[in-house]
Amino acid sequence: MSEQNLRLEEMDSFFNLRAKEYDAHMKETINSFEEYYNLVAEPINYTEEPIEILDLGCGTGLEISAIFNKAPNAKITCIDLSEEMLKILQDKYTSCRKQLNIIKASYLNYSFEKNKYQYILGIMTMHHFLYQDKLELYKKIKSSLREDGKYIEGDYVVTPYHEKKWLKQREDMLNELGEDKLKLYHIDIPFSIKTQRRLFKEAGFNEFNLVFKQGEHYIYWVK
């Protein structure tokens, strides 16, 4: 990952300002971009049933085409903070708009229905949160999955050294903010794979499967 931009921006504003360039940026950033976004759906078993899928931090919907390739009749709930990103998503998928439930919200605070989803995805979005925030979110994800459901995550994964470095940088960035530090800022805090696996175990997931690993770009799923 590149060095952190030290100018703090609130999460929704950050992505609203960059929505139009987001897809091009990700193509330049992610190793093997097309393979990566195709493999995001690899853990999904092909089905023509109208299964329920939850896409957290869906952005412009880069992963949705691959999902529909595996589950063409799926009903996908798409949650994101950025109104501008969601507008692009809607423009991309006008032909299957009735299958998308698009929600502008923070998935940290949004109440997921229990035992509803066959699959939940979090693609390139979870590296913004601290350990305890992630743990509570993973617990919520676990309770929202059906008994045989899977959670699929694609994200940055770093070495333990760089994990500590990014956490220290975050602490330094927020120290002078006072009460404003409680706002949701765009700050990258990628974890090591060891930390990720510990989080999943604490959240109640028993099975971990690695799908893709190239540099700092990983895809894995748990159940």
From TrEMBL:
<protein>
    <submittedName>
        <fullName>Class I SAM-dependent methyltransferase</fullName>
    </submittedName>
</protein>
<keyword id="KW-0808">Transferase</keyword>
<dbReference type="Pfam" id="PF13649">
    <property type="entry name" value="Methyltransf_25"/>
</dbReference>
<dbReference type="GO" id="GO:0008168">
    <property type="term" value="F:methyltransferase activity"/>
</dbReference>
<dbReference type="GO" id="GO:0032259">
    <property type="term" value="P:methylation"/>
</dbReference>
<keyword id="KW-0489">Methyltransferase</keyword>
<dbReference type="InterPro" id="IPR041698">
    <property type="entry name" value="Methyltransf_25"/>
</dbReference>
<feature type="domain" description="Methyltransferase">
    <location>
        <begin position="53"/>
        <end position="149"/>
    </location>
</feature>
